[in-house]
Specification:
InterPro entries: SNARE (IPR010989), T_SNARE_dom (IPR000727), v-SNARE_N_sf (IPR038407), Vesicle_trsprt_v-SNARE_N (IPR007705). Helix content is about 95%, strand content about 0%.
């Protein structure tokens, strides 16, 4: 079950990295190339949404004690998706501004703006990657701690069951002893 989820996670990470790269390229392209890139990014965003839905379905099927960890991962993925969509929207606005500037003949500092935008996107991608890696490490550690706790609880349960069984045997032996002593007293 969790292997399917992890497979979806990997696909989502690869897809979001591609989307981020393409969003950064949109302002640099011209004409039909830009239109094609915008269409490709829209298609990939839809694929990412579908992956998120698949991941949510997988989380619903996971055992309740493990579900919390996966739910927190899902929240971070949804936030990342929201940021990607916002970045794409800004890129499209920049794209429409550039089209307007091309039509009006206003060139300005577009290459400097593009460079700053690309550097900003790259920095954002690196921060997101670091946060994702840190979150993944925390999730792995949490899973290990949870597994150790479950093992300890299992051992404790076995000890309690053995002690309960010994108590029943002792109670039965005390009952027999009491009957024997009562019989002896009557004789």
């Amino acid at each position: 079950m969790s292997s399917d989820f992890e497979s979806y996670e990997q696909d989502f990470a690869v897809l979001t990295a591609e989307i981020t790269g393409r969003i950064g390229k949109v302002p640099k392209l011209v004409g039909d190339e830009k239109k094609q890139m915008v269409a490709n990014v829209e298609k990939q965003l839809e694929e990412a949404r579908e992956l998120l839905e698949q991941m949510e379905l997988e989380v619903r099927e996971i055992a309740p004690q493990s579900r919390g960890m996966y739910s927190s991962r899902m929240r971070s993925y949804k936030q990342e998706m929201g940021k990607l969509e916002a970045d794409f929207k800004r890129s499209r606005i920049a794209y429409s501004d550039e089209v307007r500037n091309e039509l009006l003949g206003d060139d300005g500092n577009s290459s400097e703006n593009q460079r700053a935008h690309l550097l900003d996107n790259t920095e954002r991608l690196e921060r997101s990657s670091r946060r994702l890696e840190a979150g993944y490490q925390i999730a792995v550690e949490t899973e290990q701690i949870g597994q150790e706790m479950l093992e300890n609880l299992s051992h404790d349960r076995e000890k309690i069951q053995r002690a309960r069984e010994r108590l029943r045997e002792t109670d039965a032996n005390l009952g027999k002893s009491s009957r024997i002593l009562t019989g002896m007293l009557r004789r």
